[in-house]
Amino acid sequence: MAITKETQIGKIEVVGKYKSVQVRTDIVIMEDAEELSRKYHRHTLAPDADISNEHSEVQAVCNAVWTQEVKDAYATFKAEQEIN
């Protein structure tokens, strides 16, 4: 009877004009290959986020969608928000 806790990337979504990346992490409790419990945690990453501690799958998606054009547009948007 082995009980294990596993963290999985449940979902990665790219949304919005500035390609925000939404990540759902699943925490799964298993007993002898049978799932006992599953909890979800979500977080969102903007194009100026430090992704060095993110899972490699998340980093790959971010690097694919956050082109320099997207990063520049997001930086301009943030600068305009600070002025207003």
Task: Give the strand tally.
Answer: 3
By DSSP (H or I, 4+ residues per run), the number of helices equals 2
Gyration radius, rounded: 17 Å
Biggest pleated sheet:
3 strands, antiparallel
Describe the structure.
The protein has 84 residues and is of the alpha+beta class. Helix content is 31%, strand content 44%. The chain has two helices and three strands; from the N terminus they run E-E-E-H-H. The protein has helices spanning 56-65, 68-83; strands at residues 3-15, 20-31, 34-45. A three-stranded antiparallel beta sheet has the order 1-2-3. The radius of gyration is 17 Å and the shape is elongated.
Tags for this entry?
three-stranded antiparallel β-sheet; alpha+beta; 31% helix; 2 helices
